[in-house]
Write a structure and sequence with these properties.
The structure holds 2 protein chains of 2 kinds. Helices cover 68% and strands 1% of the residues of chain A. By secondary structure, chain A is an all-alpha fold. Chain A has one domain. Chain B has 2 domains: 238 residues, Response regulator (Rossmann fold, 3-Layer(aba) Sandwich); 133 residues, 3-Layer(aba) Sandwich (Rossmann fold). The N terminus of chain B is likely disordered. Chain B is globular. The chains are: A mainly alpha, B alpha/beta. At the A-B interface, helix 2, helix 10 and helix 12 of A face helix 5, strand 8, helix 10 and helix 11 of B.
């Protein structure tokens, strides 16, 4: 009888700690080191932390929303329109009055639920192509936003309660990032440990298998769309508060970047488990990369080109390195169990 | 407040116009008895009143006589007090995509806006409508908004011509890409004029008149403000809109050349002219660890984001010099005066009134008058002074140079 771990039955083998998103974590570490050492950028100074962390926080929330959709094998191109709509609703409905902020937030939540439901039903129930559907709903939302906003607004500043809150920092870290991290942790725990989360994850990974297991896969996948849009809406509310005067360009930066952040986190475009930690790291990487380019004086054209390259390379790496194992870091037992471990990163 | 550079700029513009024969020797037509195309109404206003309008538009001492004839005529008409009925009609036209003017003539005026969604564009649209209502020969106004889509812009221009618009004014966000559509509209007999944003390389057969400031002169003026007025030293930063936009390239080069080693342009950052882009550009400045004594930009609307980024980083905002005006920026500037967070601010007028010049230019062209291909107007920089912030107006209000009557502004702002 041997007590060696590798001699134990796999059923009893204890899975070692599995560092999430190792590839993107390494990329982040490398980027930070390059920024700090050869380039001499003080990424941890007050100037960087106070101005970068709100941007990272919003990107994390929007990317998490996109991750839920990509997890179902879809893609959400209506995110920029949703972000803009939320900003306009807060502007117009609250009209700068703190007392009306809660009503505006409730309206935003309702709008996000409806958008998520509409996208989800069209894609999952009617089985329409996600790309085409969200392109169309994005246009629909953009048009509705402009009609709702009207010609000109008398108040173009969000209520002070929201802007003061969104601009608050703890230490030098923006409250937006702290909220984003808290949401990410809650989502990760829910997906991993709660039955409803595991059902949703299962339905996202393998629709047919989930359906045959009696999991009401379509309903679960529609739920993923709704959750995604609510997460995007939360990011948009905080972004509107941070910008203070949101306009019709509010959502523009989040079309490509949200997809890049998710792909950098190792997500398969064809669908799969939502990798929360890796998505957070992907969002961090894309914001940091843009910041380094800006500080070094490269134009946004260069930055966009690199984002496109990163997206392409990231997709290729995900496609061709699925079976690459981190053998040197793991015990044989863990290696034997690596199929499960990898999928739960 | 008048800048020393203003007189020079005005003189240069006047000289340039003289060389280009833009100062038409023809007196304004004394017709106007009937609302037919080609008849211009006489405008009965005193030069003193017109000068007041000019002062309001430029926010600086620019003499009426130093301006090109078409621009003078523009301000004469802008000085007219419109009746309540006409203001009601203006509001109706502004709210809709098309309107008919009772008793108007047979000229249809088309507005082709590349992106008519922000407050600046909305006010520019009203300036166009108000100016058009001073012409009895205008019987219909059709406005289009391409919402940032080139294909829609091209289609809108062709559609305006097809609907019989013989006068088209445009803010062209797409540069030369829209020229073929302009050419097609011009071939159908439309007179076309662009305002504020030049259309580089557009032949006169496509765009008959371009109304804009001298971008290079504006760059030089910004450099003069930096060195002579603000007496900056060290590094300054340039903020641009979309990467490689021709307007930015022009003033950036002239700005840098004019500095002549007295100051260094430490960095140039793209912002896409959005609040988020501007915040991130400002974030890059404060994160860089370098000190920038001034930030130079060609759009005032997103500049409050710079103030926010600097203050979040615990730094004092550097001197800001910008084209156009923004009430939110004025608020930030005014509320910080007398505090350790105070910063210097120089800006130009809102430029919206240039849209009125385009209307007068196309109406003059229809009237058979000679209008130069380029109507270059002064763009003086002025220093912010107490009282510039208007607490009754929203943050994105384009400032005190707007020539729309207050009563109408109150109706426009819901």
């Amino acid at each position: 009888m041997s007590g060696a771990p590798h001699a134990m039955s796999p059923a009893f083998a204890r899975r070692p700690f599995d560092l999430p998103g190792r590839g993107i974590l390494g990329a982040n570490v490398a980027l930070v080191l390059v920024a700090l050492l050869p380039l001499g950028i003080d990424l941890f100074g007050r100037g960087s932390l106070t101005t970068l962390t709100p941007v990272i926080g919003v990107m994390v929330l929007v990317a998490l929303g996109q991750a839920f959709v990509i997890g179902t094998g879809g893609i959400d191109l209506s995110i920029p329109s949703t972000v803009t709509l939320v900003g306009v609703v807060i502007l117009k409905d609250a009209a700068g009055r703190n007392a009306d902020l809660w009503r505006a937030l409730a309206l935003c939540l309702l709008a996000c639920l409806l958008i998520g439901l509409l996208n989800g039903v069209l894609v999952e129930l009617l089985r329409l192509n996600a790309l085409v559907v969200t392109l169309a709903t994005g246009q629909l939302i953009a048009g509705a936003t402009r009609m709702y906003r009207g010609q000109a607004l008398a108040v173009t500043r969000v209520p002070d309660t929201l802007s003061v809150f969104a601009r608050r920092s703890v230490g030098n870290v923006s409250v937006i990032l702290l909220i984003a991290v808290a949401v990410a942790v809650a989502v990760a725990l829910w997906l991993r440990y709660h039955t409803s989360g595991r059902r949703l994850a299962a339905a996202s990974v393998a629709r047919s298998a989930a359906h045959h297991s009696g999991l009401a896969a379509t309903r679960q996948r529609i739920t993923a769309w709704v959750i995604a849009t609510v997460l995007v809406g939360l990011g948009a509310v905080l972004l509107a508060g941070q910008i203070t005067t949101p306009d019709l360009t509010l959502g523009s930066p989040y079309l490509l970047t949200s997809v890049v952040a998710v792909v950098l986190g190792g997500a398969a475009i064809a669908g799969g488990r939502v990798k929360v930690a890796a998505t957070v790291l992907g969002a961090l990487f894309i914001v940091l990369l843009n910041q380094v380019f800006r500080i070094e004086g490269y134009s946004s054209g260069v930055s966009l080109t690199v984002q496109g390259l990163v997206l392409g390379v990231g997709l290729a790496l995900v496609a061709y390195t699925k079976n690459v194992r981190w053998l040197s870091l793991r015990s044989p037992a863990a290696t034997a169990d690596s199929g499960v471990a990898t999928s739960q990163e | 407040m008048r800048k020393p550079t203003v007189a020079l700029a005005a003189a240069c513009v006047a000289a340039a116009c003289a060389l280009a024969a833009c100062g038409s020797s023809q007196p304004p037509s004394s017709g106007g008895s009937g609302p037919s195309a080609g008849a211009s109404a006489t405008v009965d206003v005193s030069d003193a009143d017109v000068q007041k309008t000019v002062d309001k538009a430029f926010l600086a001492d620019i003499s009426l006589g130093s301006l090109p004839a078409t621009v003078q005529e523009t301000f004469r008409r802008a000085t007219l007090t419109l009746s309540t009925d006409k203001l009601d009609k203006a509001y109706e036209c502004w709210n809709g995509a098309s309107c008919t003017i009772p008793g108007g003539g047979n000229v249809t005026l088309g507005i082709a806006d590349g992106f008519g969604q922000n407050q600046w564009r909305k006010f520019s649209k009203m300036e166009i409508i108000l100016q058009a209502l001073t012409y009895p020969q205008v019987g219909k106004i059709i406005s289009t908004d391409a919402q940032g889509d080139l294909a829609a812009m091209q289609s809108n221009i062709r559609s305006l011509a097809a609907q019989g618009a013989k006068a088209i004014v445009t803010y062209d966000d797409f540069g030369a890409a829209a020229v073929p559509a302009f050419q097609a509209a011009a071939a159908q007999g439309a007179k076309i004029s662009s305002y504020v944003g030049p259309v580089p390389g557009a032949p006169q057969t496509a765009v008959q008149t371009q109304v804009h400031g001298d971008t290079c002169a504006a760059g030089k003026d910004m450099a003069t403000v930096a060195t002579d007025d603000l007496k900056l030293t060290g590094d300054v930063a340039i903020f641009n809109g979309t990467p490689g936009n021709p307007q930015g390239q022009s003033w950036n080069k002239c700005f840098t050349d004019q500095l002549a080693g007295k100051l260094t342009v430490g960095t140039k950052l793209d912002t896409s002219w959005t609040p988020a882009g501007t915040f991130q550009a400002a974030s890059a400045l404060v994160s860089s660890g370098k000190t920038y004594t001034g930030i130079f930009y060609d759009y005032a609307d997103p500049m409050p984001q710079i103030v926010q980024a600097y203050e979040k980083a615990g730094k004092v905002t550097p001197a800001l010099v910008t084209w156009t005006s923004n009430n939110g920026l004025f608020k930030d500037w005014e509320t910080r005066q007398g505090t350790p967070k105070a910063f210097e601010l120089y800006f130009t007028n809102g430029l919206n009134w240039q849209a009125r010049v385009s209307v007068t230019a196309v109406m003059d062209l229809l009237d058979g008058k000679t209008v130069p291909n380029e109507l270059v107007v002064p763009q003086p920089f002025v220093k912010a002074t107490k009282g510039i912030y208007d607490s009754a107006r929203p943050d994105d209000y384009p400032g005190p140079s707007v020539l729309v009557p207050d009563s109408l502004i109150d109706r426009m702002l819901q």
